[in-house]
Structure formats: structure tokens, C-alpha cells
Amino acid sequence: MSNFTEQDNWSSLLKADYTINKEQSVKLSYIGFYGNFEEGSTTSVDAEPESSSSLNNDTIKLDYTWAANSNYLNLNASVYYNRTQMRQHVYEMGESSNPYGEFKLQYETNTLGMVVDNLAFFSLKHDWLTQHESLLLVTLGGEYFKDWTEPQAIQQTPGTGDPSWFTGATPEGDRSLGSAYIQAEWQYGEHFSFESGLRYEQFSLQGGGEIYSGYILNPPGVSPSRTLIYTDFDVDRHENYLSPNMRLAYRFNDKIQGYLSSAQAVRPPEITETLLFGAHVGNSFPFYPNPGLEAEEAWNNEIGLNFELLDIAKGHDLFIKTAWFENTIDNFIVQGRVMRPTSIDDNGMTLSYVNLQDEIRFDGLELQADYESKRLFAELNYTKMNVGLGKGGYDPFPLGSQVGYPETSMGQAGSGSLNYIPPPKHSGALTLGLKLFEDTLKLGARMRYEDNDGRGGSAYEDVVDWQVYDFWLEYQFTSQFKLRMSVDNLTDLNYAEANGTSYWIAPGRTATAQLTATF
Questions:
Q1: How far is it, in rounded angstroms, from Cα 419 to Cα 416?
Q2: In this predicted model, what pLDDT tens digit does every residue of 260-298 receive, in sequence order?
Q3: H or E segment and range at residue 460
Q4: pLDDT over 70 for what percent of the chain?
Q5: DSSP codes joined into one string, 288-327
Q6: How far apart are CA 301 and CA 497, in angstroms?
Q7: N or C: which end of the chain has fewer CB within 10 A?
């Protein structure tokens, strides 16, 4: 076995349902995950792990349904809580001449949320249309969630390491988002429907940290050799947004439906994007917050056709979905190099999240096809994505300047100061399968692929364009017991997937088995 690839994972699922009466019911569910693993940055046979980690993820959810014998009361409500906690022991770091020390770390993210909505039906009568009746569906609802993060870093042995290396990149803060919305759909006959809605959102974010401002050299013989200087900062933001949407659909016949949709969406900045601070491990360069980071505002347009080709031949069904999409985004958030308030030149490396000044555009085609017969099944998914990032300009002074805003190439077109990986130009998957023994046994093979147009730089150029092959089987012993086995990446291909601002090497050949019992 390769070093640092062993994992000990456990998961659990519990559900309980209670029917109050024929109209009302409640459901309580719990999903848990526990993982224990080691990490290292070298493949040497004799290498020691650099850290050991344990991860816990717990989600508890309570659902309530009230389906009254009424066209006006169909209520669904849920409350949920999630906690993700990771404990990590980082062993001795740094060179022997400059040891950073050992650290015990804990990262914790909590989310508390609730959702409630009600669907009402109205039968409309009108004499001015060919068909004198139509149906109006109105959904009223609201959502609320709050995230709060609690990082902790404790140095275990003497050294020059700084806890902010670990807590600043996953900063402490609170973020909440509440919304109220109305969605109405008018269905006229069997062919035409029109849907429109409006969502109001209220966003807030609070937190703080320390900004690295520089250092002062200590007298000779004093350890450490320099004293670092930090400045405290605090963020307290509250904003409101309004987002409309619409969708028009027309069924030409029982096989073909066309649709057109347009929606505005807002994504407020995350805790990490706004409050990022501290420095890269080893204090090689600092991270800066951006308290004024603006929310992304997007318009998402889509036009498509759906085909339902039942019995194209005896016992053969084919479903096809095709769509063209165009998404334009203002204030797109990426990570880039910025100037410190005290910088007099742009020779240093300081990173912060920034808003791009140009409108960003994603457009392309999507295709999904599903085929099924008595013995065979197949699935095809394909996406072609075009990305237009504009000129790549942004404000390189997120915290202003104390020295008169010196000239800098940062933030200018073509400066190479952004850390961003666009989505793949082509991606897709093809699955072919066989059903045996009256559908109790299913065998399937899948090919996944990505074409990143050669992106990735010298470190990843050979692994960002790839095809991966998987195999799986599913066997239903009885109505209570089901076995599923799979092998992903059959050929053990070395390939990479985009993850944030870099590519990460994906897992090698992976075999899993799962036995499900239903009582």
C-alpha cells in the first residue's frame, strides 16, 4: 500500500417516521460520518506522516408535512443542524535549524437552518380563451440558515511557528442568510405553462482577525530574530437583495417539450472569502481580508428541448434533454495578488479575494440521454463550456493605501495575478449496463472524461485531460437485502481534478462494497 493512503471511515443513517393523522406526519433523520487518516507530501517509502486527522460530520433533520384536504394548504417545513469538525495533529515542521514546532488544530463549522413553504392550487375560469379553465399554482415560502466557524490552533512544542498560519486561512466568523419568496405557475391546457417568481434575501456577516503589517528586527542574539507586527480588523455587514425569475414551457406533442428560462441570482461572499488573514505556513507570504468584497450577481438564461420517446421500438424507451445556457456574472470573486496598505512597490506576494471588474460569461451546451429496455440500459451526459473572463482587472488595494496608491501591475489585464482555474471545456460520462435475472442483478461500466484544453501549467499539463473507466454491480438478494460493489479508476490512471485555485491528484484504483438491509 502506498504511504498515507489508508483511511478508516464509518458512516451511519437513522430515520424515524410518525404519522400524526391522515393529513400530518413528521420525520426525524440523522446522518453521520467519521473518518481517520494520515497525510504527507512525499511518496518516499521511508517517509513519516506530516499530520494525522480525524473528521466528524453530523446532520440531524426534522421534517413536518401537512397535506390537508384542501387546495390551499399543502405545507412542508424542516429544521436542520449540521456540524463538521476536524481535529488534526501536525507533527514537527520546518528545518532543524528553524523548527516551527508541533500543532494541535481543530476546525469546526456549524450550520443551523430551516425551510417552510406552502403550495396552493387555484382553478381559474375565463371566457376569452379557447379553453375556459386553467390552473394556477402558488408557492409561498421562506428559508433561513446561519453558519459559524470556530478554528483553534495550539502550539505543542517550542518553535517559530504561528497559530495564524492555520486559523487565518479558515477564519472565525458568523454568516446568515434569510429569504422569503413567491413562485407562481400558470398551466393552460396540456401544452402551455408560464412560471414566474420573486425572492427577497437578507445577508449578514460578522467576524475579525489580524492583518500582518510587517516586522521589526530584534537585536543580535535575540530569538526569534524579528518581531512581527499585526493590526486588528473587524467586519460587520448587512445587505439586502431582490431576485426575479421566469420560465416558459410549451409541449408540442406527447413526445417533445420546449422551454425558455431566465433567472437572476445573488451569491454573497463566504466567511473565508471576506475574513481570510494570516500567512502561508512558513510565513512565506501573507493573506489579507477584503471586508468590502461585493456579492456576485448573475443572470442565468437557458433554452432547451426535452424528448420522451416511449416505445421507439417494442420495449425500448429513450429520454433526451438538450439545452443551451448562458450565465453572466458581475463582481465575480477570485483570489488574486494585492498590495498591502504600506506597500511602496509590487514586488511582494500578498493574496486576497477580489471582485473582477469585467462581466464574466459562461455559456455552452448540455446533453443528457437515457435509454432503457428489458435487458439493457445506457446513460450519456455531456457538457461543452465556454468561459469568458474579460480582461481580468480588479482593485489591487482592498484595504486602501497609507502611502499614496503607488503604481502597480497588479489588477491590470494580463498581469497574471489571479489564482483561478476555469471549469473544463468538455466533460461527460457514458454508462452502459445489463439487467439479468428479472432485474435482480445489474452490471454497469462507465467512462468519465474531461478536456481542459491543456491547462494546468508545467506541473499538471499531462494529467488534466483524461478518460477514467469504472465498473459496478448491484444485486438484490431479497426485498430486504441489496449488495453493491464498484471499482473506480480501473486502469489506476494518474489524473487531476480542479479544486479551487489548483489541481489535485485524484484517487487511484478504488474498490468499495456496500450491503444494505431494510427492515
A1: 8
A2: 999 999 999 999 999 999 888 887 788 999 999 999 999
A3: helix 457-460
A4: 96
A5: ---TTPPPEEEEEEEEEEEEEEEEEETTEEEEEEEEEEEE
A6: 27
A7: C
SS3 271: helix
CA-CA distance, 350 to 318, in Å (whole number)? 54
Q: How many CB atoms lie within 10 A of CB 393?
A: 17
Q: Which three cell numbers mark 169?
A: 486561512
Spatial neighbors of 145 by CB under 8 A, at least 6 apart, are: 111, 112, 113, 114, 176, 177
Mark out the alpha helices in 164-319 (DSSP H runs): 164-167, 271-275
Res 229 pLDDT > 90 = no
Q: Which helix (H) or strand (E) holds 459?
A: helix 457-460
**Residues near 219 by Cβ (< 8 Å), separated by ≥ 6?**
none
| 3-state SS, one letter per residue, for 473-504 | EEEECCCCEEEEEEEECCCCCCCEEEECCEEE
Task: For cell 496608491, name the residue.
Answer: 405
* 8 Å CB contact between 321 and 306: yes
- In terms of residues, how long is the chain? 519
- pLDDT above 60: residue 149: yes
Opening angle at CA 219, ends 287 and 286, nearest 5: 5
Which cell is 187 given? 398551466
171 neighbors 128 (Cβ within 8 angstroms): no
SS3 (DSSP) at 158? coil
pTM exceeds 0.85 for this model: yes
Residue 459 has phi, psi (to 5 degrees) of -75, -25
How many whole angstroms separate alpha carbon 443 and alpha carbon 483?
Answer: 12
Q: Which residue has the cell 460530520?
A: 57
Give, for 458, the enclosing helix (H) or strand (E). helix 457-460
